Amino acid sequence: MKQASEQKEINTEGKPLRLHELNIEELALYLNKNKIRSTQGKIIQPLHEGHLAVIHDPARFKVLACGRRWGKTLIASLMALATLMQVNRRVWIIGPDYSLCEKLFRELYNILVVQLKIIKPGKPGGGRARNQKGEYLLELPWGSVLEGKSLENPDSLAGEALDLVIVDEAALQPNIEDIWTQMLTPTLMDKSGSAVFISTPRGKNSFYKLFLFGQTGKAQREGKAKIAFDKEIGVSNDMTEWSSFKKSSYDNPLLSSNPEKSKEEIDSAYRRAALSGKLLKFKQEYLADFEAVSDTCFPGFTVDKSEENEFPHVVDYVYHPDEGPVYAACDHNFAKPASTIFAQVNKYGDVVIFDEKFTPHTSSYAQGQQILDKERELSSQAIRTWKQEGLEISKQHHIKFTNVIADISGDQVQLNGRTAWDDIESIIGRRPVGLKQDRETGANMIRLWMNFPQFDHKGKAMFDENNEQVKRPKLFITRNCINTIYAISTAVFKKGKNGVLKEDYDESPEGYEGLIDALRYLMVYILHDKGNHFSTIKGVF
Fold it and tell me: Same domain for 403 and 259?
């Protein structure tokens, strides 16, 4: 086996270099200068600013949601190539099926075997190459190996110590989060390997959940979202090793030698989509937009600020004990994960969901303990805050939830002669409360608070320059509440008889609707609590 020092020397502008000495950006320049072409026949271009942002990001796990021709195949190829140039590295390219993993594998085969001829199959010390359906393998002379894998056979993904995993067209795999957790994570542990998930969005599916991991990871690294550990089930929401990127086709300045022409081509595709009623598909394919589901139950819900959405619902928010009352709301479930959300009502009357619990096979006793633990955590945080502000601390400074709101079915007697509310009361010392409601009422209340009509100080409705009533969110969620964000983002209308859509949301196989249930219990209760200032908002109630 050849060592790194024996790898093929490269002569660039009279300076001898070896491929393993080049970083990803330098590799792209080398391929460009030496007129190495992609499988489409075009000379490989240097990396643009969007590519550089990805490769310079320190996260181990990266999620790229990209529009057509942004260059996701190029960046993935170069990341794999840079790893393979080192000694004894193992890289997997994974696709939902072999045909989809072949595309990226073929690019690397074309570079390493056909053009650079680093791999010379059949010659002593020349490495190996297999390029046929079901067997995609490149073995470099210095022991590094590239394999193409298919998610059609998840069992084949076990038992390897890998340096890099690239999952191409990840959005086409409906259970990619489960495959990542159960199959791929163990393969990266031995070598602290990295993973890259690349895809054009296909609605808010499991790939979208991974995208949220990256968004939360960035917020946690910047100190804008907290890291918590659930001692009961031993799970942390630490996402600091994740990053995600959303790049549209417009974000590639190297589409052609004439950027204006490239922009016009995309604009033309937009006009065709608009005329044919296929705007959602255009937004998905070119703008990397996750909003590809037409029957989403909460269509106004936005995660990130944009030109179209100045006021997103997902925010960076830090709990403060003096900001306003706090609530807990829970949905009881043992067969599916039990759901609990924690909210604060700020001085502006906004409802902010600042934490969540989404735990499988959780008893009502355990749910009560989660609520009590959260009260103690908030109390400790409050005491630290007040001491920093020079206030005297007394016993009255213990933080208690204004109310614990729960599904009223939890007040019904169970087989053991006790109710879920009995169990929770035995832990927290107070009985939960709740109001009778249906899903349609609750869902409509959530939608109202997501896009709330604005009134001036005299109680008159406010209108914009187009004579449309001004609306702003009054319901917000912090980035660390990944499961709640995912639940709201992916909820679709429930279908009644003959496929007619109803006003409420459908069941989720994973039980995410429990988080929406908890949210509607909360919203309906606090908005109808006569002792609460919500009930006095003019023009609404």
Answer: no
